[in-house]
Amino acid sequence: MRLVLTSFTRSLVIAGLVGLMGMSAALSQTVQPSPADLRLVPQSDAQIKLSFAPIVKKVAPAVVNVYASRKVVQRRQVSPFMDDPFFRRFFGQPGGNDRPRQRVESSLGSGVIISSDGTVITNHHVIKDADDVRVALNDRREFDADIVLMDERTDLAVLKIRGDGPFESIDFADSDSLEVGDIVLAIGNPFGVGQTVTQGIVSATARTQVGVTDFQFFIQTDAAINPGNSGGALVDMTGKLVGINSAIYSRSGGSNGIGFAIPAHMARFVAKAADHGGKVQRPWLGATVQLVNAEIAEALSLDRPRGVLVTAVFDGSPAFEAGLRVSDLVIAVDGKEVTDPNSFGYRFATKMIGEQTDFVVLRDGAEEHVTVSLQPAPETIPRDTRELVDYSPFEGATVMNLSPAVSEELGMEGIFDGVVIAEVKRGSTADRVGLRPGDIIRGINRQTVETTEMLEGITKKPPRVWQLDIERDGKVSQLILRG
Fold first, then answer.
1. Closest C-alpha to 306, from 341, 259, 354, 262
2. Catalytic one of 107, 115, 124, 125
3. For the PDZ domain, which residue ranges apply (predicted)?
């Protein structure tokens, strides 16, 4: 079958085509794509040769390799019979078979020079328990370094290079201005192969369910981060520090494109603490908050879950003095939105003592502003730190009296009385019976334990049977042991 066009139909087709062409021209004049919609290919040799090299040259000298080592004492046991002094004498080896032997453990990470005087910021887990710390610069010079500050709760530490400066350093960026899709570079020493640069984008901001630190508010990136990158720099396209690379999500141990960095805002806060006495002192709110889920949001007539709900306000606290109330919904801190307790904790914990902060709260359906003075948590009772050495279930435990100050330091918000275990020596009796840092000793043999002095007195006159009441994660359990 053949299509035949008459002169009439040809005229209609031509007219239609002319009309469509006119319509297309009109549309081209009225609807122009925005610059963001344009996808351009390189138009010149200069554009083809675009590179991140200038940024890398600028920041690479400020990124260092961090080598940490510690001496570990081990006992060498050839035979279990050597535990018995009789067998030692019989075999002519009086204790010689289990002489302590030293072994050196080392860890490798990265760090960032943030000041020309040689101040370096890195991860706490890179230099934890280290006896010696050494840093290697990009130009292969190596220096010993002193540990100025360690803050396990943020997984950050500050070092000071022992050497004559000035050293190349990097400036902090405003990590709050970072947006999803921004290009970033990760610089560090993965697997010990030497300084390495990887490129990616910001996959997410304000990740709060990572579980690495007490203050969870991470930058997520797909720039490759591997073991050894910890403590290294995450930089933006201006060559400024936006984060400290800290963790990866991986089932194999290598990069799967999900890496996390501590925001520069938190790193700057810890660095300032190192300049003011070498101790991180965070403001105390004196209130507890909880997540707003869909059910709570519906009860509060919210269009969506947001903010944090105030569940308790303690008498005499900064929150109490500011007029914060139970059932207030805090939706912003100094203009920055909060979405859950982790983001709220980050926003509040990075404020400096002596300043004021503004909460935006929803109260009875209306927005109100509450100004909170930033004060340190008080030590209402001396902590009276004691290491228990007498034979008891607590041998090897370091204990403190709880107060708002101790509670804040240990991340136990809202618990202000009792005796808490702050540290447990590995291999000690306390370790073997299952006691952990953060456990609160509520009672022994039906007697309430109120102070560390009282607890130590009980351990000096041990009973034949120990009935322990231990609070852990808000639940009290009973443990019965024989002396």
1. 341
2. 125
3. 269-340, 399-459
- Where is pLDDT greater, at 116 or 103? 116
Which residue among the candidates 107, 115, 151, 155 is catalytic per the annotation?
155
Q: Which two tokens stand for residue 321?
A: 């003095």
Give the whole-angstrom CA distance, residue 31 versus residue 438. 64
pLDDT in tens, 123-178: 999 998 888 999 999 998 999 999 999 998 899 999 999 998 799 999 999 998 99
> Active site residue: 175, 230, 255, 392, which one?
230
Is 155 part of the annotated catalytic residue set? yes
Q: Which residues contact 198 (CB under 8 A, 6 or more apart)?
A: 185, 186, 223, 224, 225
In whole angstroms, what is the distance from residue 268 CA to residue 274 CA? Answer: 10
Beta-strand relationship, 218-221 and 259-263: antiparallel
pLDDT by residue (tens digit) across 9-51? 334 333 443 443 444 444 344 445 555 455 566 778 777 677 8
- State yes or no: is 79 an active-site residue: no
Q: Which residue has the higher pLDDT, 117 or 87?
A: 117
The distance of Cα 295 from the centroid of its chain, to the nearest Å, equals 29
246 pLDDT more than 70 = yes
Alpha helices in 257-360 (DSSP H): 264-275, 294-299, 318-322, 341-349
SS3 label, residue 457: helix
- Say how many residues make up the chain: 483
When pLDDT is averaged across residues 102-120 and rounded to a whole number, the result is 86
- The residues, any chain, with a CB within 8 Å of residue 421's CB and separated by 6 or more, are 394, 397, 398, 399, 430, 435, 436, 437, 438, 439, 440, 441
- C-alpha–C-alpha distance, residues 238 and 58, integer Å: 10
Model pLDDT, residue 239: 94
